[in-house]
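Bit of a strange request maybe. I'm writing a small parser for structure token strings and I need a real example to test against, not something I typed by hand. Could someone generate the tokens for this chain?
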Amino acid sequence: MIPAELIRGVLAAPSAPDGYLREVARREPSHRFLGGATQGCYVRMVHLLVAAYRAQQREPATVRVLDWGAGKGHISYLLRKSGFDVTSCDLKSSTDDSAFNQETPIIDEQSIQVIPLLDDCALPFEDASFDLVVSFGVLEHVRDDRCSLKEIRRVLKPGGLFFFAFLPYWLSWTQRLAHLRGNRYHPILYSVQGMRELARVSGFRVDRVWHGQLFPKNFWPDSNAIERLDRFLTSRTPVKYFATNLEGFLVAD
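Reply from user aminoacidic:
Good idea to test on real output. This should exercise your parser:
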């Protein structure tokens, strides 16, 4: 089990912005979110993945990772920069989030190869191909989350990890406000118990699940102080139950 202290420590630690992503955010209007505090969230989460494997005496170069739903390519970029052996894929669809239907300067400039998926329940990889699969705001958008998670379990090695982030939480004040305003970008909201049950029926067990992102991150510039406050409130006080997202690790049984 990944120590809770490690998770809290890494995610609350100050993070230096990535110069390349900041430069992309400056020149590309579609990537402005990468110039503020949101980028800090991505950087910290990749730092967490590095720390989780180093706690197991494994260096990133020995870890084969699938970036499931690569989108704009920023997660694949950060994972690769941190030394992971990264494979990127995304659904070939007409949605604005697909890597194949939007401007992708990071993918183009960093020569990231994104494997097209025709079906999110049929990954073109052999059984037990990966040590880690990451989902940064993807699971909640697939047509069948149980089917997709079972397929992810198939391509993970026994004991492999599924890391999910930005999974919309059912009591989130921001998600509820969005629904009241008619914004159904996240039509499905998840509870901790619901995620545990989804993991169980898909061949996983829950290692850690925690609440994150009490405050929206795309409304202010970088602020390590605000992030530390956010992490304190979502880990040690009852207001965590109104946080925006769930994050966590599942282990392939």
